[in-house]
Amino acid sequence: MTSVQSKLYADDVSLVVVLLDANPFFWATSSISFSQFLSHVLAFLNSILLLNQLNQVVIIATGHNSCDCIYDSSSPPQTHSSENGALPALYAHLLQRLEEYSEGFPIRATPSTAPSEYVAIMNAIFSAQRSMVPIDSCYVGAHNSAFLQQASHITGGVYVKPQHTDGLFQYLVTVFATDLHSRSFLQLPRPAGVDFRASSVFGQAQGDASSAADRKRKAPET
Amino acid sequence: MPQVRIIAKSFMDMVASLPASKLDKLYQNVFICEAILRSLPPLAKKYVLQLLYVDDAPITAKTLEEWVLADGSSKHKVAIDRLIQLRIFTETVDRKKEVTYKLNSTFQSNLQKHLKNGGVLPREAMPANVTARLPSLDELGQYALEQWERFLLHLISPSQTDARTSFSSSMMRVFQRGLLTQRDKEDPTLTEGGFQFLLMDTNAQLWYIIREYISNSEERGIDPADLISFLLELSFHVTGEAYNMNTLSDIQGIMIKDLADLGLVKLQQGRKESWFIPTKLATNLSVSLSDSSFRKQGFVVVETNFRMYAYSTSKVHCAILRFFAKVEYQLPNLIVGAITKESLYDAFKKGITADQIISFLQQNAHPRVAEKIPSVPENVTDQIRLWEADLNRVEMIPSHFYDEFPSRDVFEAACDYAREWSGLLWEDSKRMRLVVKAEIHMNMREFLRGQK
């Protein structure tokens, strides 16, 4: 499969869609705690919003077998409620939604292995490829995720597996905060051997659902 | 938009030209750091972000270059130059001639705070129970435009009495500098720059005025740095929200009245408190440097028979149209006129170009005709250009006139010689006279001497 060339973008405005893995099965075994992870991600999201006033951020939390949109920077700002005090809108709103979301978690021990889901995921990746939306992946698990590697590869995104999770913010900012326009001028991590084995999807599907933050980036329609 | 010479400098260039101590002072304000970061070229923004948490050691120029692909080297240079110019990077060259950069520490810590805490507004909006009914966004936009038009009208025709703003006459004279010329006892007339100014879009006009306002501030005893920081801060407020006046410093309190005259804010008075409401003009201030998202709706329809219908109640529009068209009659919401040869000649004489007129007509085309391509009929635009070209029919060439040739042979030889040098402009063989270009005059003289 040939990877798409990234489109020529004239400006540095981005719409960043973050898929945040909030699956408790993964975070229970992870080397970095979810709250630590979240603080890196929040700083990263702030830096996206800082870079350009037209930038937008959408966060989708993905769980074990569900997902929900929990934050959209373009929706009108929530009024500060007194209990949140001076806590900035992004945090308060996001944390609240994240809590609501995780309360609704159906905690089940038996993961579903329906092949139909695989088809849906691949469809999503192919349509991202077709509409030239790069999928970047940042993977904090123990082994490389062949699945995400492939997804990033065919959509022209970047796949990173940070060596030091305590410096996660620096990885996020260095690689993923790069707008598509600047990507054509900067040295970014290149795939060092993508695992193309088709079997990997089925063989590792459950273990590799532990992606930390996949991120789609899209130039605004305007 | 016609390329306008008088607006060449951008706001950030102005910031960059401030002395070092003033710049360092500016960076103590979080909002300025934010606005400045956003104004940087994309690569420069990336560098700042990547170095934000690299604390101690300065980074070498070599390391920085390694981040960039070969294609991007020119952009890299532009980015670095800008960062140094704005004193965000300080450059040091050590004994081994190795160049290193260090991030401005105030700038750095402010942005770090921003990343940790997220964007915070400069001041809290007032609760709705104190302020009664606030104007809607549409009303506010309308207010801003009206205020701005009144200011423009005052600017271009100071004699009109219904166009009063609270700007002092000395302040108005500062704005008029370069736009109007005043001869003794005559009404002031617009200069070429003035016409160009009127044909610009609102944002560009606003920037010109703000620039004059800032550059003149020292004479009024106001520190330009204070002014710049307040204007940038203002752009981070939310359009349409009310902010209490008592949160402003004394200087800011004076400035806000001027800004209200320009339509940047609306001032309102409650029973006990007073507040200001930023309009779109203010919140777009830091954005408007690059793009003009604040577009006015067009109003002009031009027909193939050179008649022009302008759906506008604005006196400024009428004044602008009069510059190049013959206004025939004016209804409450409609100006009807014709583009004639005479009216255009008047315009050309005043220094307006055909391209400026055409781009004005195109940019202000009524929505009904704006969808059409071309929005202004081709025969009209062509004719406007042709009439302009008519005026440029005469070409001046410095030349020399020769007569009283001793014989026809000498005359013809001279003509041939001039033709050889392709310098013959005119000859009259009957009376033996010719005109040649000035540049071959010396050669011609040599040649004629040889002929004797």
UniProtKB/TrEMBL annotation, chain A:
GO biological process terms on file: nucleotide-excision repair; regulation of DNA-templated transcription
Location of this chain's protein in the cell: Nucleus
Coiled coil segments of this chain: none
Metal-binding found in the keyword field: yes
rRNA-binding among keywords: no
GO cellular component, one term: transcription factor TFIIH holo complex
Gene Ontology molecular function: zinc ion binding
Swiss-Prot/TrEMBL keywords: DNA damage, DNA repair, Metal-binding, Nucleus, Transcription, Transcription regulation, Zinc, Zinc-finger
Gene3D superfamilies (UniProt xref): von Willebrand factor, type A domain
InterPro entries: TFIIH_Tfb4/GTF2H3 (IPR004600), vWFA_dom_sf (IPR036465)
Subunit structure: Component of the 7-subunit TFIIH core complex composed of XPB, XPD, TFB1/GTF2H1, GTF2H2/P44, TFB4/GTF2H3, TFB2/GTF2H4 and TFB5/GTF2H5, which is active in NER. The core complex associates with the 3-subunit CDK-activating kinase (CAK) module composed of CYCH1/cyclin H1, CDKD and MAT1/At4g30820 to form the 10-subunit holoenzyme (holo-TFIIH) active in transcription.
Family membership: Belongs to the TFB4 family.
Role according to the record: Component of the general transcription and DNA repair factor IIH (TFIIH) core complex, which is involved in general and transcription-coupled nucleotide excision repair (NER) of damaged DNA and, when complexed to CAK, in RNA transcription by RNA polymerase II. In NER, TFIIH acts by opening DNA around the lesion to allow the excision of the damaged oligonucleotide and its replacement by a new DNA fragment. In transcription, TFIIH has an essential role in transcription initiation.
Protein name: General transcription and DNA repair factor IIH subunit TFB4
UniProt organism field: Turnera subulata
From TrEMBL, chain B:
A Gene Ontology cellular-component term: transcription factor TFIIH core complex
Transmembrane segments: none
Record's keyword terms, sorted: DNA damage, DNA repair, Nucleus, Transcription, Transcription regulation
Subcellular location as annotated: Nucleus
Keyword Transcription regulation appears in the UniProt entry: yes
InterPro entries for the chain: Tfb2_C (IPR040662), TFIIH_p52/Tfb2 (IPR004598)
This protein's record includes keyword Electron transport: no
Gene Ontology biological process terms, A to Z: nucleotide-excision repair
GO molecular function terms noted in the UniProt entry: ATPase activator activity; double-stranded DNA binding
The Transcription factor Tfb2 C-terminal domain, residue ranges: 382-449
Family, similarity comment: Belongs to the TFB2 family.
Reported function: Component of the general transcription and DNA repair factor IIH (TFIIH) core complex which is involved in general and transcription-coupled nucleotide excision repair (NER) of damaged DNA.
Protein name (Swiss-Prot/TrEMBL): RNA polymerase II transcription factor B subunit 2
